[in-house]
Amino acid sequence: MKSALYAGAAAIALTAGAAYADGHLAFPVGEGPFSWDSYTSYSDGAPDLSGQSVTISGPWLAPEDGFFDNMIAYFEAATGADVTYVGSDSFEQQIVIDAEAGAAPNIAVFPQPGLAADLAARGLLSPLPAGMSDWVADNYGAGSSWVDLGTYADANGADQLFGFFYNVNVKSLVWYNPENFEDAGYDIPTTMEELRALTDQIVAEGETPWCIGLGSGAATGWPATDWVEDIMLRTQPADVYDAWTSNEMAFNDPRVVAAIEEFGWFARDDAKVSGGAGAVASTDFRDSPKGLFSSPPQCYMHRQASFVPAFFPEDVEFGVDADFFYFPSYESKDLGNPVLGGGTLMAITNASDATAEFMNFLQLPIAHEIMMAQTGFLTPHKGVNLEAYLNDTLRKQGQILIDATTFRFDGSDLMPGGVGAGTFWTGMVDYTGGKDAQTVADEIQASWDALK
Q: What gap in Å lies between CA 153 and CA 161, rounded to an integer?
């Protein structure tokens, strides 16, 4: 469900591709905010792959496939290789069929790590080129997290790096109206302690700090799971989060119950939520941020992922009427700057020399910057020029990824569907409706036990 939301929002955010120059390159070499020095250095020493081909399959359709082809052109120009990308709306089913039949493309683009991990365990993926694990750890923000997220057991049970993350998204954001903050004299909170203090201050001044909506048709409740996941990452070490999402630690563990109750500190207080706590579950998540832009404002803050501007009023201008800040971490917890989100990863499904070279090419800043300049593409690559981003919104989110000390995938997406897209959703609705957090957590754990 949430993956589909990201895909739809990305399509809304896309702009027309850059005009071709130099015959076949979208941006002329040497022009624009790109890392041309590293690209030309690569080109000068690149292997001659003329006559060799690389095939790539993934879920990106038009216009995203065109933007990706624009990036591929720089690899082709440097090496002489022929690279072909084919997108499919049934990619996740087709890649399994092709891999089992021995007819897989050279590279597959997975929208979630679960399927890639499954294919790796069946011996249907090849490890990434030697050295990429160290490179990711050193050159990505929260690099060790990305290594962990791309490392899976092979057919012999040995852990190897199979996934290279390329194009990610950010959920740990709080949206606000800069004009309202300025008029009220509010500062952007940089710690969770400051965010809670600001929440109390807004209430004390007779205003409402938050807009929160959980409504989403049959998926009602999922926005609350994001809150709980972000809070877990800010109150517990990452390994505890991992144990929770895999059920190595029970869902009704006191640490999880405490995170749910902390969400309740924001969402179950009539004074803190637009419309009162009783309206949280019934307010559609697409409508909930609109209170930021009413006059007078119905709320001052809205915690939601990077796709939410798709649901802002049409006349809202980023930087003037809307902006965001990082959902902050606790200064007192000393857990760094965790970021919740998701992303696509590339894995080798049919190894070749040209394929390995393409994966090495993806380490270059230009392989990310060409995408950054065209569409809603985000990268944790610390070597990119942030000025290459298409707009300020993406640039700020890219900086958050670079500054992250830990990155974790949406927890409910990692849980079994009956829990992550079932009882966790409904449990959060029950909790905002007044049910005790411990009771809710007990019921969710019971549903997980029933699936085993």
A: 9
Provide the 3-class DSSP secondary structure of residue 48.
coil
pLDDT, tens only, 299-318: 999 999 999 999 999 999 98
Mean pLDDT confidence for 200-216: 98
* 260 CB-near residues (< 8 Å, 6+ apart): 228, 428, 431, 437, 440, 441
Q: Using CA atoms, how far apart are residues 284 and 290, in angstroms rounded to an integer? A: 11
User: What letter would DSSP give residue 295?
Assistant: S
Mean pLDDT of 167-189: 97
* Dist. CA 82–CA 84, nearest whole Å: 7
Angle between helices 36-45 and 64-79 (to 10 degrees): 50
Which tokens belong to 252? Answer: 């009704």
CA distance 202 to 361: 50
Give the model's pLDDT for residue 319. 87
Cβ atoms of 219 and 425 closer than 8 Å: yes
Q: What pTM was computed for the model? A: 0.93
Query: Which tens digits make up the pLDDT trace of 106-160?
Result: 999 999 899 999 999 999 999 999 999 999 999 999 999 999 999 999 999 999 9
In this structure, are residues 298 and 208 in contact, taking their beta carbons and an 8 Å threshold? yes
Paired tokens of 241: 């989060």
Q: Measured between alpha carbons, how far is 444 from 399 in angstroms, rounded to an integer? A: 36
CA-CA distance, 143 to 137, in Å (whole number)? 4
**How does DSSP classify residue 195?**
H
> Nearest CA to 85 among 55, 59, 50?
55
DSSP secondary structure, 387-421, as one string:
GGSSSHHHHHHHHHHHH-SEEEE-HHHHS-HHIII
Which residues, 6+ apart, have CB-to-CB distance to 389 below 8 Å? 372, 373, 395, 398
**Are the C-beta atoms of 303 and 327 separated by less than 8 Å?**
yes
Rounded to whole angstroms, how far apart are CA atoms 30 and 27? 9
395-428: burial string, b at 16+ Cβ within 10 Å, e else: ebbbebbbebbbbbbbbbbbbeeebbbbbbbebb
Instruction: Tell me the CA distances in angstroms from 309 to 66, 105, 139, 286, one per residue in order.
Output: 24, 35, 30, 10
Question: Each residue of 345-376: pLDDT tens digit?
Answer: 999 999 999 999 999 999 999 999 999 999 99
Q: Quick one: pLDDT at residue 2?
A: 52
Can you spell out the DSSP letters for 314-376?
Answer: TT--BTTTBEEEE-PPPTTTT---EEEEEEEEEEESS--HHHHHHHHHTTSHHHHHHHHTTSS
Q: Give percent above pLDDT 90 in the chain.
A: 94
| CA dist 203 → 143, 170, 288 (Å) | 39, 28, 19
Q: What is the pLDDT of residue 11?
A: 36
